Amino acid sequence: MLKSNNFNSIIDDLSAFNQTDCFEALRPTTLELENTTASLSVESTLDAIRNKNSAETNQNVEGLPSSSSASMANKSSLNNSEASLASMQLATGFMQAFSPPLAKARTQLKELIGKQNKIYIDLSEEKFKLDNGEVAKLQDMMNDVKLYREKLLKIKKQMQNIYQRSKVLKKRALNIQSFKEKELQRKLQKQQQEESLIAKQQTQ
What we know:
The protein is an all-alpha fold and about 200 residues long. It has a domain at about 90-170. The chain is about 95% helix and about 0% strand. It contains four helices and no strands. Helix 1 (about 5-20) packs parallel to helix 4.
């Protein structure tokens, strides 16, 4: 069994450690603070149970002799102190055991969320570029269609002009051909008349 003075000094050392070095070393996050709150809640519940048991023990000891009452009170105090020490050690061990993995998991989760956000931003930028590229291509196609339509109308107009000119030229060619045929026929008739006159003169 521990002496009361030594036991109190151990409790004081653990309390000082929990108030300074432990929390400065761990630097708890929100999740760790929630775990600490839960541990303190459990400890307060245990203290309430111990206080209730102590009160019941004191009521039972009131009828006993003074030496027995003092011995029982001393034992009850030591039991309460041991239970408090055990709960503090349990809470400290729990925090020391689970704080590093939780901190590591929290860091990895932050890195994962950061990578996901970066991928989302990159994909959004690529989609925006593709959308802009498609819009630019569509605009170029519309401009090309407009340009080709204008060229087609111009070519069509030129073809109509050429057709009209060819029609006029064809008509003129027919007129010239008819005129030449008439001229040739007249020359042939004149030549035949001259030949017939020459033949008559020779016969006379």
